[in-house]
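Re: D-xylitol-5-phosphate structure - here you go.
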Amino acid sequence: MQVAPSILAADQLHLEQEVGRMIKAGCDLLHVDVMDGHFVPNMSFGPGMVLALHARFPELRLDVHLMLDNPADYLQVFAKAGAWGITVHAEIPGGAENCLREIRALGCSAGLALKPATPATAVTELFPLTDMMLVMTVEPGFGGQHFNSAMLQKLSHLRALGWTGLFEADGGLQLSNLPLLAAHGLDVAVMGTAMFGSDDPARDIARIHEM
Ligand code: DX5
Ligand code: ZN
């Protein structure tokens, strides 16, 4: 399993050191949450952060999670800023289809995120347009929430419906619940609080890589 530390949980005044620490510890991707205060009741980073991270850490794959009502307006700017992957939500007005097509056309990995209440059956038609399926294991908006174990069934359901691509999970992930997620086929673990709060992220990432 791969690890994508989420910078939402990093010390915001020392992001360069915080990200450097995660790279040194062996992280595979860096998860950047983008929130608009409308799609979710919180605000976070914008394209300027992606640009700055990409300039400072050009080898690092930036996994950009767009929690926006209108992600279509920003796909190009995030791709230009240096995003490796861009994830949009299935619940956005008008649906995610056109965004997924555009993300691929921009040369990025296309991610599709599902809030906890969105069933697997809502996205089957989008399977061919999606590279990574992000199953939210908390209600999006804030770090440090409790893992919703009912989402494990969604992973199984998506597989049963024919999803054969990568699985990412986001929200409340800890070393303690990762074995269960691994058993359900998880490929990429987004970890905010657990990774930036760890006293030994290198040890934790090494363990996760073995799962
Ligand atoms: C929640 C965000 C997550 C968040 C996860 O809306 O999408 O990426 O940073 O944080 P933890 O791992 O602390 O639950
Ligand atoms: Zn996220």
